[in-house]
Amino acid sequence: METEDDLRRFLKQKLRECFNIHYSNSSRATSWNDTATCPWVFDGYLCWPDTEAGTTISQNCPDFVEGFQHTNLAHKTCLGNGTWFRHPESDREWSNYTNCVDHEELIFRSSINTWYIRGYITSLVTLIVSLIIFMSFKTLWCTRIKIHIQLFISLSFTCIVWIIWYKFIVQNPDTIFEYPKLCVIWHIVIYYFMLSNYFWVFCEGLHLHLALVVVFVKDTIAIRWFLVIGWIFPLFYVGFYASFLFYFTTGHP
């Protein structure tokens, strides 16, 4: 699916197809009319038909889910009392799609995430070393170096938040379901520091422009404005983004 709206329309179409299939066959008699049965259901991926109690049915995995192997089989169990099996942790009706996962692709994606983490750790270490060097020699503390320091600090925070994201959220998808609001907040924090990186790069260019064109600008005044631009300005943009994000993730259409 190209977009979330495309996926939503596609799933609605699947639900309508499931509904039509069920009611087109509803007049047909089944061999277990007098026994308990689990009613048909669309679980968001596949359409499961009426099923005799005490049996497990299988069908091919959905072909529109990234990371699923279509040729594998998904399963759904109808209990002896005529109700669908519920997951013991969530207490919700549960279909077994564990066999659908393409393990080779999963291993590949996990290795990519691991390399992301290693790359960010390497970047973080080099940034910290650079900051130690800058701060150890006060003779280097001109306005240009102070801007470098702030840029490196913002880049360091960006590395830290991305490491946490890949380590504790991407590699542990259950975190999204257990702490959805916390994940949204962390997503916003990531984008704040990323945006701050770009603003500090802008400050680098602005300082060069002032040094070449304006010339007579007090360093103390300039650095104050750079601090506002680098750390405060991103808050306005991220604030608007966060407002829309929370609006659309709290049940609004």
Would you kindly provide a written description of the structure presented here, covering whatever features stand out?
One of its GO terms (molecular function) is G protein-coupled peptide receptor activity. Residues 17-104, 112-253 form the G-protein coupled receptors family 2 profile domain. It is found in: Cell membrane. This is G-protein coupled receptors family 2 profile 2 domain-containing protein. The protein has 253 residues and is mainly α. It folds into 2 domains: 4-96, GPCR, family 2, extracellular hormone receptor domain (Hormone receptor fold), CATH 4.10.1240.10; 103-251, Rhopdopsin 7-helix transmembrane proteins, CATH 1.20.1070. Helix content is 60%, strand content 8%. The protein contains 6 helices and 6 strands, in the order αββββββααααα. The chain has helices at residues 4-24, 103-136, 143-170, 174-178, 180-214, 219-248, and strands spanning 37-38, 41-42, 47-48, 51-52, 55-60, 73-78. The protein has a two-stranded antiparallel ribbon. The longest helix has 35 residues, at 180-214. The model has no long low-confidence stretch (mean pLDDT 86).
Unreliable parts: none
- Considering the protein shown, what is the CATH homologous superfamily of the largest domain? Rhodopsin 7-helix transmembrane proteins
- The structural domain count equals 2
From N to C, what is the helix and strand string? HEEEEEEHHHHH
Quickly give the structural class: mainly alpha
Number of helices: 6
Looking at CATH, which topology of the largest domain would you report? Rhopdopsin 7-helix transmembrane proteins
Mean pLDDT: 86
Molecular shape? elongated
Top-tier CATH class of the largest domain = Mainly Alpha
Helix content: 55-70%
Span between termini = 20 Å
Number of strands: 6
Q: What is the second-level CATH architecture of the largest domain?
A: Up-down Bundle
Radius of gyration: 27 Å
Most strands sheet: 2 strands, antiparallel
Widest beta sheet: strand line-up: 1-4
Percent of residues in β-strands = 5-15%
